[in-house]
Amino acid sequence: MSGRFFVHPDDEPVLGRGGDKHIHKEAVDFESYIRSEHFGKRDSRFHTSLLPIPYGGDLSRADIFVLLLNPGFSHADYFGEFQMPEFRKRLEKNLAQNFEDEEFPFLWLDPKFSWHSGFVWWEKKLRDVVMMIAEAKYDGSYLDALRDLSRRLALVELVPYHSSHFNGHTLIKSLPSSRAAKRYVADVLMRGVRTGEKTIIVTRQEAAWDLGEPTENCVIYKGGLTRGASLGPTTPGGAAILRKFNIPPSSA
């Protein structure tokens, strides 16, 4: 692939075989994106001019992992990566798993990026859980609770490339990066789940993750739960997060 694309080299042959079916073939930055024919259109192709997000948060220290399908997409992604150097640097540090001097390893809970769609999405889903953590642990301080959860929360995506909606289900079995994500979860994270050290919350594509039957530390969303992927305190995922903080979900 030519131009400025961010695709794992092992994924290139698979995505390339689809021509322009799976990816936008023109590399763009923010200015060229908003002037392109793609601006404002709902498109299932991957935005490979953006940095992929195969994972997020401090994988070595987190004890709560949310498993998803792929990163969503908004115009703020191009704006953030190409117009906001600090945000771009944090994305690069996340990929390198370099969190030295970072208050919020899970950057989508960092208030300084509250303008970004990623913060809006995660903070909204977790707001009531964070408020309960704040009341139980931090004398009501929402910021302190947000910081604490950011240190303990991580995500793993089945497919690491941004799209406004997903139409690449045939790729899940063939993309090497997807197979690597599944191996990491099955071989590394599930060991911690079995010992009780880690909690996994599967919000999307439970069949593709193939983790067997749900347990207290392996929460698997099925049916209608997957549509909203809610993490409120009365949902299985939100209750699991509260258990890691030793907060009874019944107090919700």
Characteristic key phrases:
8% strand, alpha/beta, 252 residues, five-stranded mixed sheet
Element pattern in H and E:
HHEEHHHHEHEHEHH
Which structural class should the secondary elements be placed in?
Answer: alpha/beta
Number of separate helices: 10
Bulk shape: globular
> Would you tell me the overall average pLDDT?
92
Detail the poorly predicted runs: none
The level of helicity is 25-40%
What is the gyration radius calculated from CA atoms?
18 Å
**Beta-strand share of residues:** 5-15%
Overall strand count = 5
Largest sheet: 5 strands, mixed
Distance between the termini: 50 Å
Query: In what order do the strands lie side by side in the largest sheet?
Result: 1-3-2-4-5
Secondary-structure map:
Layout: H1 12-16, H2 30-34, E1 55-56, E2 64-68, H3 75-83, H4 85-96, H5 117-137, H6 142-152, E3 153-157, H7 176-195, E4 199-202, H8 206-209, E5 218-220, H9 225-228, H10 236-244
Parallel strand pairs: 2-3, 2-4, 4-5
Antiparallel strand pairs: 1-3
Helix pairs in contact: 3-4, 5-6, 5-10
Please provide a written account of the structure.
This protein has 252 residues and is an alpha/beta fold. The chain is built from ten helices and five strands; from the N terminus they run H-H-E-E-H-H-H-H-E-H-E-H-E-H-H. Helix content is 40%, strand content 8%. A five-stranded mixed beta sheet has the order 1-3-2-4-5, with helices on both faces. Helix 3 crosses helix 4 and helix 5 (117-137) packs across helix 6. The model has no long low-confidence stretch (mean pLDDT 92).
Quick description:
Strands 1-3-2-4-5 form a five-stranded mixed sheet, with helices on both faces. The protein is built from ten helices and five strands, in the order ααββααααβαβαβαα.
